[in-house]
Structure prediction request, 266 residues.
Amino acid sequence: MGVDIQAYEEHLKLEKERHMAIVKTNEFVRLSRYKLNVQELKIVAYLISQMKPQMTEIPRMTMSVKSFCDVCGINNSGRSRKQVQDSVLSLRNKGWWFEDEKSMSSVAWIEHVEYDKGKDTIELELSRKLTEYIVLKKIEKRTQYELISIIDMQSEYSIRLFELLKSYSSMGRAEFQVDELRKILGATAKTYKEYKHFKAKVLNLALSEINNGKYPILEVKLEVTRRNRKVDILIFNIKELTSFETVQKGHDNELEKTNVRIEEYE
Prediction:
């Protein structure tokens, strides 16, 4: 039986895109305050992964909806394509704050969007301010990971917390006041006002996806300190996994999930 060369080449291209690097300044990751859903976050990550560090001008990008769905493991149906289109339009209409000690700057995600119905592609231009923070600015302290690290995450809080902790991974530790972390992650709804709900619905889910994914690159453990019997400081102990540890842990995670499904079936 012969090898399907075209299918093999498409597989290689898909894997290459999944392993494309996403690079942001630590400053961008730590100081940006925005609220996006999980698909919008993946679209932003996908677009950044297509950009080259040596770019000196804002690129006009063409995004294949099918390629994005394939890379992210999304069923390439008419409904899925419509959801991607809607997410890109939502990004076009959203702005957010970049805040440092001295000021707050309003930043947009996308300046221009155009959808080609025949080619099923979206032509867009990222905003200048955003591009400056990510590509045009000289990156000395940066957060870098591969797109595959977040592809399977189902919660926006998982992606945000993963990026935040990755920016501190070289230090092996990161500390945040509870209210501060809520704001960084965008988990400011009344539902998460009580710490027990914030922990159950945001932190536990995010840490589970970070630690137990198919391609884990961090191992994170949470400690807390209390003030007047109330949780005050969250301490994340962060270990960067080697390539071998990532493959081994990812394999073990998938095997454990398979065993759980078998037990549930029995």
Notes: The radius of gyration is 20 Å. Residues 33 and 183 are 7 Å apart (CA to CA). The chain is about 45% helix and 25% strand.
